[in-house]
Amino acid sequence: KGLKSLKDVYKDNFLTGTAISLRDLEGVRFELLKKHFNAVTAENAMKPSELQREKGNFTFDGADRLVNAAISAGMKVHGHTLVWHQQTPAWMNIKLDSGGNIVYLSREEALGNMRNHIRTVIEHFGDKVISWDVVNEAMSDNPSNPSDWRGSLRKSPWYYAIGEDYVEQAFLAAREVLDEHPEWDIKLYYNDYNLDNQNKALAVYNMVRELNEKYQKTHPGKLLIDGIGMQGHYSVNTNPKNVELSLKRFTELGVEVSISELDIRAGSNYQLTEKEANAQAYLYAQLFKIFREYSDSIARVTFWGMDDGTSWRAEESPLLFDRTLKAKPAYYAVADPDEFI
Length: 341
Ligand code: G3I
Hints:
With 341 residues, the protein is an alpha/beta fold. Helices cover 39% and strands 17% of the residues.
């Protein structure tokens, strides 16, 4: 078909990626994947509950199939995710006490569970991945005081079991493993959503800046956190100016930025009116003009899926291809943003 390849359109700007699952590794889906994308993120297969559902029993088969297929097709793989409060087995943070009550593990136990998961998983995949979401979605949605970012980490059981330094501890654990493998070049990311909200963006900015400044006191010139993943789960009401403001702010930190989970909710009930389809396309075009402008600090732009039919938000038709894998106006807007604006 005459469609431009998105990875070719943006090859001088950033990696163009998509979330994938095992179903994407065959037939027309794999053809679409190979045509447009040069980077992939496992949508679910590399999450804590998929890799270590029971303590000490690591199950890598599904993830290995995804990673090996992507690499054989010449794609880069981003690892998602090592530490999160969702899709994470309860045993990592809590247990039943003698009276049968649910209690948090001690700091020592929970830290041991976190460090073992991080070490085992990073060592398993090695430099088959170019980067990891070491911690995902730790920051509360609208921090009342962005300078007190530690006080905004309370949404995760890791916070209550380990303490307010659990994010720092996760990155220190990952960094320790990478320091044992200087031949690898793997970037360590903090990944979160709603970072177009300026309170949350400022809280994340403060956390990354403070943790990197503290780390550099003992490791001059090195970073603890290499990158920030802005998830990009947007809607047609998202203001691209806020996205740009946050991109600009994160760029000042000297870390790389990735748009890690881009989709734009536009419709309802699994369909888009023509007006909704055009509004969605227009915002995609606006965003890609901004991403192109910031491509010096953007490493990767990853769509959270290829087509509406398999999107986690299918009923809102957020992606570039429809459920018959036909290109939507949104695809043409990304392939040629200047045509749209
Ligand atoms: O694998 C089981 C299957 O065995 C079972 O039959 C089926 C029905 O219960 O569930 C399947 O697991 C589902 C899994 O996706 C794999 O399809 C889970 O129920 C479902 O909750 C899970 O949803 C994923 C969601 O994360 C869970 O938090 C979505 O696919 C995935 O797109 C979404 O991705 C997250 C990112 O990781 C982090 N950022 C937000 C983003 C959207 O929530």
